[in-house]
Amino acid sequence: MRTVVFDLDGTLADTSGDLLAAANACFRDMGAGDLLRADTDSGVALRGGRAMLRLGMERLGRAEDEATIDRYYPVLLEAYAEAIDVHTVLYPGAMEAVAQLSEDGYRVAICTNKPERLARILLERLGVLGAFQALTGADTLAVRKPDPEHLRETVRRAGGDPVRALMVGDTVTDHDTARAAGVPSVLVGFGPGGGTVAALKPEAVIGHYDELPGVVRRLIG
Questions:
Q1: Which of 82, 100, 143, 190 has the highest count of CB atoms within 10 angstroms of its CB?
Q2: E strand or H helix at 184, and its extent?
């Protein structure tokens, strides 16, 4: 069975606003105020909680303070869980493309480096969890992207064949995961890193989800 596997943050949905808010809650708790801004830091938000904490600590002149980053990471996750869908929006056409792929006979799944619990909460709040046959997160397996087994096991859980799959993502991590698994990657050109993804030379770059079903048919039949 052919399977299309999606990344979540920055690919299916712009989650940066809620992620930045959770990180800033940590910095306020430190007495530093809001250190991250949506207009400049949305890209780092989509790289995860530790990346945001590390950037803030760099701005405080404490780039090497890993102990504080470790201490505040679970605080950030809880703050994020409490307000996970305040600013988050699905990208235009994303779920229409997922529905079309399902109608065309593809399995569809999500492989994210967000903790699985948080990914499930978010997708339930957005009302789209049921559209996917499988979901794996950063802590679902003993490995995570860019390890190819994260992608392969996601495909298996969706009822698909790992050699007949495709990864849709927005970062070098997604591209490298697909490459390691021996399957094509399609990167989105509309996320925070959209201007740089073409340099990674994926099999395709899309500017809108309207393009995805046709690209998938071309790449994996």
A1: 190
A2: none
CA distances from 154 to 1, 6, 82, 83, 195 (A): 13, 10, 27, 27, 28
- 7 plus 47 within the same structural domain: no
Mean pLDDT of 23-50: 94
Distance CA(76)–CA(168), nearest Å, equals 27
For the question of residue 18 being annotated catalytic, the response is no
Q: Determine the Cα–Cα distance for residues 194 and 16; give it in Å rounded to an integer.
A: 14
Same domain, 71 and 117: no
Rounded to two decimals, the pTM is 0.94
Can you tell me the mean pLDDT for 44-57? 93
Q: Which is more confident, 122 or 191?
A: 122
Q: Where a domain ends, among 59, 82, 105?
A: 82
Active-site pick, 7, 9, 18, 41: 7
Give the pLDDT mean for 1-18: 96
Residues 117 and 197 in one domain: yes
